[in-house]
Amino acid sequence: MSTITYFEKPGPVNTDNALALAATRAKELAIETIILASSSGTTAQKAATIFPRGSLVIVTHSTGFERKDMQELLPKRREELEKLGCRCLPASMLLAG
């Protein structure tokens, strides 16, 4: 039986708990690949310490999403994530216009 968790307030204060809950559920269901949205990579770095190595696919904004020619996931952060076994995928938001 699964449970539902509600957080009192939105925001980054819930990230650690949400990732821990997701990792527990993924383990229960034997989910091997986790898709995680992370613009700057901050959440992705936290997730990389929780989920098994090689299980994370990090989806971030495409270059130019925030402003022209800008990639929010900086090359150094991307390199760090890839060293932790993450696969990084900058992608366009399907319905962003």
Describe the structure.
The protein has 97 residues and is of the alpha/beta class. It has a domain at 15-20 and 33-91. It has 3 helices and 3 strands, in the order H-E-H-E-H-E. A 3-stranded parallel beta sheet has the order 1-2-3. 13% of the residues are buried. The mean pLDDT is 90.
Distance between the termini: 39 Å
Tally the helices: what do you get? 3
Order of helices and strands: HEHEHE
Query: What would you report as the Rg, rounded to the nearest angstrom?
Result: 14 Å
Task: Please tell me what the overall shape is.
Answer: globular
Low-confidence blocks of residues: none
Beta-strand share of residues: 15-25%
Biggest sheet descriptor: 3 strands, parallel
Strand line-up in the sheet with most strands? 1-2-3
Give the helix level as a range of percent. 25-40%
Output mean pLDDT: 90
Instruction: Kindly state the number of beta strands.
Output: 3
What structural class do you assign from the helix and strand content? alpha/beta
Task: Itemize the secondary structure elements and their pairings.
Layout: H1 15-28, E1 34-37, H2 42-48, E2 56-61, H3 75-83, E3 87-91
Parallel strand pairs: 1-2, 2-3
Which descriptors apply to this entry?
97 residues; alpha/beta; three-stranded parallel beta sheet; 3 helices
